[in-house]
Every structure is written in C-alpha cells, then in structure tokens.
Design goal:
The complex is a heterodimer of chains A (465) and B (201). Chain A is mostly helical. Chain A has helices spanning 10-18, 21-31, 45-64, 74-83, 88-116, 124-146, 151-165, 171-179, 186-218, 244-269, 302-310, 313-333, 337-354, 364-377, 382-385, 398-419, 424-442, 444-447, and strands at 34-36, 241-243. Chain A starts with 9 loop residues before the first helix and ends in an 18-residue tail after the last helix. Chain B has helices spanning 13-39, 45-50, 83-92; strands spanning 54-57, 66-71, 74-80, 123-127, 138-141, 154-156, 163-164, 185-187, 192-195. In chain B, the strands form three sheets. Chain B has a three-stranded antiparallel beta sheet, with no helix packed on it. In chain B, strands 2-3-4 form a three-stranded antiparallel beta sheet, with no helix packed on it. A three-stranded antiparallel beta sheet of chain B has the order 5-6-7, with no helix packed on it. The chains are: A mainly alpha (465), B alpha+beta (201).
C-alpha cells in the first residue's frame, strides 16, 4: 500500500495519508519556520507585496470581463467600466491604486534589503530572484499602461518602444517587431494585452514562489544582521527565532490593516493622486497625430527616465572619462594579472565606443538607453559590490548609513526631475544625480570597507513588548 | 530563554475571544469586499437600458399575419388571429399538455392564464423561443401543413420537432415541456402594446 503513515485522524488523516506534502510544507513554511523575533516595521513590505499582487490579479480578472483590447473600443470600454458596470469604478480604482501601491511597497521592501544587508551571503539568490521580480514588475506596469489607450498610454509606449530602435544595427527592425506595426497600433495593444494579462503574471508568480523558497532555505535576515541559526536550543531551533505562524501571520495582519487604511483612503478620496497615479493626459483618447505638451512616465519610472534624458553628447565625455578612470582603478585594485588587464581592457574598449571623438562611437541616444538599463540591472550586483565585514547598517560606521540616505535622496531627486520638462537646470541636476547614483554602487567595494564597524552583538537586540 | 517548539494553544478565554472577534470582523470584511466583484457581473447600465420595454404597433399587423419584433434580444411574436384561428385553439385544447397554463417554468402572467393566452383574443403576443432548447419555431402553419402538427394549426420547431397550437400551448408528447412564454405586456391603446412592462401605473 502506498498510503503514508499519519498522525492525524478523520478527514485530515485521509488527506494526509495520501498527500503528506500539505502538512509537511505547512510546517516547513509556517508553523515551524523560525523567523528572527526582532523583525521591525521594515519587514512588513514583503507580505504586503504578496497582498498587492493578489489584489492586482483578482481586480485584473474582473476588469478583463468588461475591457475590450481593441484600439477602437479600449478607451470607451474603460469609461464603460467606470460608469456603467456596477461596482466597476471600484474595481478599476483598486487596480490603478494597486499598481502605484505595488511600487511603493516594493521600493520600501528593497530599501529594507539595503538597510540590513539582506542581499548578502547566503541570501544572494533571494536578492537575484527579487531583482528579476522587479524587472518583471516594470515590464508588467509598462504593458498594462498601454491598455487604457489614452494619450499618455499611446505616447509613453511610442517613446519606450523607440528606445529599442536605438540599439545599433537591428534597432529599427526590432522596434517594428515589438510593435507588430510601423507605429504603436491595434497590433501592439493586442500583444501587450496578452503579455500583461497572462504571460508576465505567470512569470511573476513563479518568481515569487522561487523568491520565498530561496529565502526559507537559508532563513530570514534581521535588523541586527546576525545569523539566528548560529545559536540553537536542544531541539535545534534558533534561540532567537519564533514560529512564523502564529506570531508573524497575526502581526502581518495588523500591518495589513494599517496598509489597507492608507490604501483605501487614497482609493476613495484621491485615486488620481494629483495626476500621478492616473495621469490627466490619459483621460484623452489616444491621438497618433498629436503628442501632449508634457510627456512624463508614471511616477515609479521617473528616476530611470531622468537618467535616460541626462545622457547628452556633452555628458558622453564625462561618462567616457568615468569609465576609463574606473578601468584604471580596477587595474590598481585587482591582484590577478588577468583580471586587472581584463578590467582595464574592457574599460578602454567601452571608452572607444562611448567618447564622441571616437569614430566607433555609438549615439548618445543609445547610451541613454544603456545607462537607464544599467541603472536597473546594477541592483543585481549588490551582493558583490558590498564588501563590508558587517552585514547590517546598524553596526557599520555611521557615515555608511548617511551615504545610503544620500543615495535615496539622489533617487528621489532624479525622480522629481523625471516629472519635469527638460531644461538646462534639469539636465545638469540629472547628470549629477546619474554620476552619484552609479558611484554609490561602483565605488561600494572600496567605501564599504572603509571606517571602523561597531561590535556586532551575539544575540539579537530585542525588547519584549 | 527556551523556545516553544509548537505553536501555543489558545488555552485561555481572552485569546479565544480575540481570535473569534478578529475572525468574525475579518469575515465581514471579506464579504464586504466581495460585494462589488459579484455585483459587477450583473447587467450594466447599458445592458439595463438595452433591456428596456419596447412599444409595438399591433394595428399594423394584418389579420392572419404574424410579425416578429425584438425585446431584450429575443424575438417577440405578434399574431393577429382570425376567427378561424381562434376556433382552432379551442379544438386543440384536448391535445395540449398544459391547457390552463399552470406550469411555472415560464410563468404565464395572470392576464394570459386563459384558453387563448392573451389579453385581447385577437392578438397573440409571445416570445418566439421553443421551450425545449431555444430554437425559434416556424409558423403560423395551417392545419395539415406539417406531419407532427397533423390536423392542427400551430407552430412547429424544426430543431427537435416540438409542436405548439395557435395560443402557444405545447402539444402532449413533445420534447418541449412548457407552453411558449408570454412576456409581461400591456396595451397603451387599442393598437399599441408595451412589451416588457405590465405595471398598472
């Protein structure tokens, strides 16, 4: 008999004898998953991300019951949902507020990682899956934004797809391939609909599962950055750990309650958020013949948009010089001869295609796209950029923390300038911000090793409350 | 500082009360949240508007003629019965399954629960959909025109062979179980019928 032995009786026993996995996994991931007991406010954003993902999926399903993915009917179908479908306005606002909430929650979730060194060994994979989720989230938001077929939808898509046209040699053909047409049209709308509704959500779900499994395999980090599994009791459970269920399930419900209060306050009283969550231009049907005076991407893309716009011909001199300087730095910092020559060589090769004086130089338009892409992808490298002996900011030299805060400020300032019209002041500010942004990561192997860290405690710091 | 290796039991009344209250309020919240989603599946304003009552000029139908109008996407028949047709209805009574229209699957309105199934004997107003599986029967056919109808006049559904008399009553032994549906309707004047609304106001 292939039935498993079970400790349970009745219906539960019948089930457990045939699928012990359920209870095994329940114990492994909930009732016997020992999480550090000193987790603080910054640790709510992971479970909030899951909640917002569920909100987006459920509201998305109900929206697709009424939305028409056809360039002739799309805009009208959204108005139909808002006005004619009973409760339609509520479902639509849930989805639009949810999209912005998703990015707020995910950015704060990532910040926690920077604060406490959650990306460091042995959690590099957790971080990598997380960065992949972030990339997929940006794609999902971008594809979804075309669907209402407003002016902002259309022109935002037009601009971003044209970025791909900047790729050397294959660019223009690539852009036509992505669009399915020579301009953003019904063909583009239909395929973006398919990607937004099915393809990317499936990928996101798989990545989220992998993200959580990778985390549970190594155990959660905590604000003190110490490994709770180093001190275990007689049963082998961490002394400073508490079972996720019921302690964090209940605690997270409380955090969810606070989040929902803020979320619904926005939904009911300011769903457009002054034009940042639902942009004014998107209340106008798409017009391929007239671009709105002020195009800006949605707020969560603005820092990257700033970086894209900052790259001008003049700035290419600065970037090229910076790349050469970095190559020289690597040459003197690395030990192995192969590595130092590879580093310097790559830097010089890059400079050759970057510096405007060079005959092989690629257009600043391309480098703007490359810089924007690099600014997102550079997050993947954090586990290797960070060379500090200490994991959490709590025990680093205080100025490391202020450097992190400075990075956040730069990110916010870049975001602000991304919403504004281009101007000389805007350009200088964005260029400075771009340099500081990349310097934070690229110089981290050196600055993270500087200064005297404070002694890391043996056990987590926790006040019973 | 020992750890409990199993989750603590709700072994006191306070804990149990807190869990119960939270569960109850949480459940209420879930129900409240579900309402807009469930409601969004009901007909929208435009569907409701499209389903509004329809005025039909029955005076334009010639005696013995049947015209089809549309209400809520369904065919509504207006058959102007001749005296011969009215007599044919009386003759068919013995062979129909539900002569007094008492069945409730397609409830017959009170004003049509009579042998001729209409407000005015001359005008027969019905939904032209077979009560078997939804095809639209052909007719009105004269006596002897169809083998299933035999010597009766009436309507014949080509899909599975159900037969109805000139008052829409289904004959016995047919695949269709019910008489043709009579929609709510009222006369606004001698020649104008409002289909979809039979309120006294």
């Amino acid at each position: 008999m292939a039935l498993h032995k079970t400790q349970y009786t009745g219906l539960a026993g019948w089930f457990d004898a045939r699928m012990p996995t359920m209870m095994v996994e329940y114990r492994k991931h909930l009732s016997e998953y020992y999480a550090p007991k000193n987790l603080n406010f910054w640790y709510i954003f992971g479970s909030l991300s899951i909640v917002v993902l569920v909100i987006q999926i459920v509201t998305g399903i109900f929206l697709t019951m009424h939305y028409k993915p056809d360039a002739r009917y799309a805009f009208e179908s959204v108005e139909y949902i808002m006005r004619d479908v009973p409760g339609g306005w509520f479902i639509r606002y849930l989805h639009s507020t949810g999209a912005s909430a998703f990015f707020v929650v995910v950015y704060l979730h990532m910040f926690r990682g920077l604060l406490y060194g959650s990306y460091r060994k042995p959690r590099e994979l957790v971080w990598i899956f997380g960065c992949l989720i972030f990339l997929m989230l940006m794609a999902e938001a971008f594809f979804g934004y075309l669907l209402p077929w407003g002016q902002m939808s259309f022109w935002g898509a037009q601009v971003i797809v044209n970025l791909f046209a900047a790729v050397p040699l294959i660019g223009p053909d690539l852009a036509v391939f992505i669009r399915g047409d020579f301009v953003v049209s019904d063909a583009t709308l239909n395929r973006f609909f398919a990607l937004h509704v099915i393809a990317i959500p499936l990928v996101l779900l798989v990545l989220v599962v992998l993200h959580l499994l990778a985390l549970h395999d190594v155990g959660s980090n905590n604000p003190d950055g110490i490994e709770i599994k180093d001190k275990v009791d007689a049963q082998g459970q961490p002394l400073d750990g508490i079972p996720f269920h019921p302690y964090y399930t209940v605690h997270d419900i409380y955090g969810l309650g606070v989040f929902l209060m803020i979320f619904f306050a926005v939904l009911f009283f300011a769903p457009e958020m002054g034009g940042y969550f639902l942009e004014w231009n998107n209340f106008i049907p798409a017009d391929p013949l007239a671009t709105p005076a002020h195009i800006a991407p949605v707020w969560y893309f603005t820092p990257y948009y700033s970086i894209l716009r900052a790259v001008t011909t003049e700035f290419m001199w600065v970037l090229g010089a910076g790349v050469i300087a970095y190559g020289v730095l690597l040459y003197f910092a690395l030990r192995a001869p192969r590595a130092r020559y590879l580093g310097l060589g790559l830097a010089l090769a890059l400079a050759l295609v970057m510096l405007p004086a060079s005959p092989l130089a690629l257009e600043p338009k391309f480098w703007g796209v490359a810089a924007m892409g690099a600014s997102v992808v550079i997050f993947f490298g954090l586990p290797w950029f960070d060379q500090s002996p200490v994991r959490s900011m709590r025990y680093r030299p205080k100025w490391h923390f202020w450097l992190l805060i400075a990075f956040v400020v730069v990110f916010l300032v870049l975001g602000y300038f991304g919403t504004q019209l281009p101007s000389p002041a805007n350009t200088i500010a964005s260029q400075t911000g771009t340099m500081l942004y990349f310097a934070f990561f690229l110089l981290m192997p050196w600055w993270s090793r500087m200064g005297t860290p404070r002694p890391v405690p043996d056990r987590v710091t926790f006040e019973p409350h | 500082m020992a750890n409990e290796s199993t989750a603590p039991e709700p072994d006191n009344a306070d804990r149990r009360a807190a869990i119960a209250v939270t569960a109850a309020l949480g459940g209420a919240g879930v129900v409240a949240a579900a309402v807009p989603f469930v409601v969004s599946l009901t007909p929208s304003e435009s569907a409701r508007a499209a389903g509004a009552p329809v005025q039909i000029d029955v005076g334009a139908v010639a005696p013995g003629e049947m015209r089809t109008f549309e209400w809520r996407g369904k065919p509504v028949w207006v058959l102007r019965r001749t005296p011969e047709m009215i007599a044919a209805v009386k003759q068919a009574t013995a062979g129909v399954a539900d002569p007094d229209s008492v069945r409730t699957a397609f409830p017959t309105p009170a004003y049509a629960r009579n042998p001729l199934r209409s407000i005015k004997p001359e005008f027969f107003v019905a939904v032209g959909i077979c009560t078997h599986l939804g095809c639209s029967p052909v007719g009105p056919l004269a006596a002897g025109a169809n083998p299933v109808l035999g010597e009766h006049a009436g309507f014949f559904c080509p899909c599975h062979g159900s037969a109805f008399d000139l008052a829409g009553r289904v004959f016995r032994g047919m695949p269709a179980p019910d008489n043709l549906e009579v929609p709510p309707h009222k006369y606004l004047s001698d020649t104008v019928v409002l289909v979809g609304d039979d309120s006294k106001a």
